[in-house]
Design brief:
By secondary structure, the chain is an alpha/beta fold. It contains eleven helices and nine strands.
Length: 282
Amino acid sequence: MTNQETIKYIDIHKIITEGDSKVLKKLPKFIINLVAKIIRQDDMNMTLNKYSDQNGIRFLPKMIEEFNLTLDISGLDNLPPKGKCFFASNHPFGIIDGLILTYIVSQKYGDLKAIGNDAFMFIHQLRPLIAAVNVFGQSSKEYIKALDLVYHSDIPITHFPAGEVSRNYKRKIEDTVWQKSFITKSILSQRDIIPFHFHGKNSRLFYFIYTVRKVLGIKLNLELLLLPREMFKKRNKTIKVSIGKPISHKMFNTNYNHFQWAQKVREYVYNLNNKTINNNFL
């Protein structure tokens, strides 16, 4: 592809100027340019242009190949024959874990939907896979209706129930508490849950920036700007993934409320890190 044909899929300046944030629109140009450099905008656009004709599930193996990732997966035999499940995972990396989770599920079942925030819609190759959730504000009726249709379909759904990337909580690099919605939807749509655990973490710089902004009382998630950088740092790495036994939606009885059940699934996912992959959920 020539320079004249290069598409600027990710354009921070355009996103800011056309966005709703009055604060971001006041940023001077040199700050916006710095942000573009931090998120490796040029590298990301170069990669997306390289695979501009690979959409949906065809895009996923290309990314595994592009970043030369070696996948060390245990528990593949725990994947059920039919894919009408929630494939729920911890979220230590932010981008690479999303690509790998959807890749593994797509290799087994074909098409799928991934619950993700609408920022991923900027990457057109992923648009066919994303069931977008507006995490920056109230979800519209259109979002909710579209999600309900996905939940009640037979298509596999991948999900990170924490809703955000793992941080340093109580001296551990882990997800925050998991949202209860996937338990509620699991029951309503009769979807079993397939637990995934990604082993590993981001760089020290990522967690250092998180810690500093918390100490200073800065609410803006500055560390998220580093996620593309973290993605490129995973190039040529081995990523270890453990898959646990399916958890039937029928298990979520009234012994616990939905929030408590969500934390029990979260606990089971982290127990997969302790080589308890063959243990039962309860």
